[in-house]
Each structure stands twice: as C-alpha cells, then as structure tokens.
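## retry 2 of 3
previous attempt timed out at serialization; input unchanged, resubmitting
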Amino acid sequence: MANVIKQKRGTTNPTTSDLVVGELALNTTDGGVFTKTDGGSLIEVGLTDTVYNLTGTALDPANGAVQYKTLASNTTFTDSFTAGEAMILHIDDGSAYTVTWPSVTWTGGSAPTLATSGYTVVVLWKFLSTLYGAHVGDVA
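## retry succeeded, writing output
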C-alpha cells in the first residue's frame, strides 16, 4: 500500500504563527498554497489572481495583483502598500477627471497623463518605504 502524505491544511488562509519556515499549507476552500519565508513573511505560492474592480480610493494589492478603476469623479488615491507588494492598475476615463496620487516616485520623473479613451496602465510597487510607479502604456 502506498503512503499518503498530506500537507498542513485548513478552510482559511494560515497565519505566520501556523507555519515554520519552508512549511507548506493548503487552504482547502479556495485552493491557495502558502509558505513561510526566512524573513518570517507568509506568501502565497503560485498565485492566480482575478481582476478586481477598485471601487474605493485605497491602492491596496491585497485586493489583487490586477485592478481597474473607472473614474466617475476627480479621484485622490491613498497608499495601502507594504514593502514588497505590487499591483497593476488600469484607469478608465482620463478625459473628464483627474487623479491625485499619493507620494509616488515615478519612472521618468512624473505621473502619467491619463488617456482620453481606453485604459491608462500603471504598475505600482513598494520597495522599503518608497512607493514607485511606472506608466506601462495606454490600451483602447
């Protein structure tokens, strides 16, 4: 008879106190696989993400790696990143509204000008305590 090896598992995501460094755990509700790093952080392994409709103004990678925002008024975003997090943001309707960004160090030196149609795509990431941004381009 073959041996069956089962990973640590539960119906919710584990916490850092649930795992030792390098140990794997499985969330049996949504299939997420997690491990604890040498630095003590909990990460999801092989993350497959859905696209998140950002309805508020908090730029928060916890909502998903790919997000989109359709502007309905002038918008002031806030920074909810922690070091090491990143996200891709698609912004729609730059023709009628403006965006005020939190403190972002932009590649190229300045925030992007929003496209007048389609999406303006930016990548945002936090390294140490600095939020960085890059204008990837515009898509129709």
